[in-house]
Amino acid sequence: MESLNVGLVGMGNVGSGTLQILLENQEQLAQKLGIPVRVAAVCSRSIASRELPAAAVGVDRYSDWRDVVGRPDIHVVAELIGGLQPARELIETALSHGKAVVTANKELMAREGFSLWQAASQAQRPLAMEASAAGGIPIHSVLREGIAGDRVVAMAGILNGTCNFILTEMEKAGRGFHDVLAEAQQLGYAEADPSADVDGLDARSKLAILATIAYGCGVPAEDILVEGIRRVSDVDFNYASQLRHTIRLLCVARMGQQGLSLSVRPTLLPKDTILASVSGSYNAIWVQGAYGQDTFYYGRGAGPLPTGVAVVSDILHAGRELLSGRENRVSPYSFKQLTEYQPAPPETFRQPYYLRFRVENRFGIIADLAAILRDHHIGIDAVGQLPITNWRDLPFVITVEPATEGEIRAAVETMSQLDYLLEPPLVMPMFAGF
């Protein structure tokens, strides 16, 4: 092999960033691999109207991915189109043609990743997916190799840069969710349809991948408790500030004796914690090991170049394995075989909660809510109410002592029947560490 020939399929943000790095960093990449890394082909459905960098001289262009996968001179195919299909067919076809595969596809790898790795093993070709979670943070490598000797007890992370940008802007400027979302869309941080980000689905896929790597069990993404940030308001940041907290969309994984607890939801974080300082489009992951204890990883969670770095690093990884003849030396999931996922029951872990209500004001509301909490064995920690400006739409907050998820859900279900509530209570955990 005189050069490592690469085909890029998908020329969106990540594909464009990957191409830029491969073209501009050729000399150092060759020094690291020992042979040149050459972009042989790029593919996009709109390739005819797409302008490529001037350095892309001699790079063949295709509108059909099959033309890339079918070329015998291409060694590594990078799948950068996203989604379930045709991405899965592309990867399977590439492997059957003897290609190594690199992917940034979080949705596909969360759902089908392990079976695709088995197909790669049968084909004796590398499959790498570092860019599928946390963008430019090499968290896969950390869990798979860097701290492989440890046993992960828990993880907490901010894994969606769009949500983090929205929440930090709401806090900083005292603006509402819809106003900041519109700005995020104008800046290109959020899609025209932002549902995957703001409803927590993007972060859920990433957590499913990281939990599978950390715990060695096949985690179905759809089984993860997920709540988005649409209901978080500037009022919540006002109350959170009084409590010396802030709000972030937090992904949490905790292993207990009864199983694994996974959640993606807006959460109150004490302002003096390191996760609370993560702002803008940055991501961060805090990992607690049984032996190595706490480690923390921080960086850009998205963007063409940070994510492109992860893709190019995987291309180098694939090239090294092809050159050494030791394909899939380390499983991308760290474990040789996955065990069955066992979710922890909702009564496993206890934590404090923040409950925000919107009510039409009248006498006896606090007494009613306190009685419901008492009946569900939940103690009140504090009650907060800003000065009344509209008695027909009064927001106020109750924070409660540590309770289980099951107790909170049951109490909130009872509360939601009260006729003076304008909407169901907004419930957010108050993260106090592991």
In short:
Helices cover 36% and strands 25% of the residues. 46% of the residues are buried. The N and C termini lie far apart (50 Å).
Written description of the protein model:
It is a single chain. The chain is α/β, with parallel strands linked by helices and 434 residues long. It has 3 domains: 163 residues, Rossmann fold (3-Layer(aba) Sandwich); 162 residues, Dihydrodipicolinate Reductase, domain 2 (2-Layer Sandwich), CATH 3.30.360.10; 80 residues, ACT domain (Alpha-Beta Plaits, 2-Layer Sandwich). It is built from 14 helices and 18 strands. The strands form 4 sheets. A 6-stranded parallel β-sheet has the order 3-2-1-4-5-6, with helices on both faces. It has a 6-stranded mixed β-sheet with strand order 9-11-10-7-12-13. Strands 16-17-15-18 form a 4-stranded antiparallel β-sheet. Strand 12 and strand 13 form a beta hairpin. Helix 1 packs across helix 12, helix 7 packs across helix 8 and helix 13 packs antiparallel against helix 14. The longest helix has 21 residues. The N and C termini lie far apart (50 Å). The mean pLDDT is 93.
